[in-house]
Amino acid sequence: ITIRGIKDMEELLKIKDFIAVQLRGVQNIIQRSYEGGVAILDVSAKSNAQQIGDELAVKKSPDFTLVVTGATANTLEISIAAIPAGK
Question: Taking 60 as the threshold, does the pLDDT of residue 84 lie above it?
């Protein structure tokens, strides 16, 4: 999974926790890199990338919105949209 638009390491940790807890079948997350607001994660899961992307499209976090911008058989491109203050 490539995630773009991450504002800081704290947000990345929240995203990794969200993926691990909220998505079915996720077994392990390995952070390959994080630089310039872009993180690359290896996610071991019972589901394929398309199924994970489908779940991300409907699961909501109070801190951010994950928008799937691209998907192949085993990769996902995601961008972060911040939740407006007061919501």
Answer: no
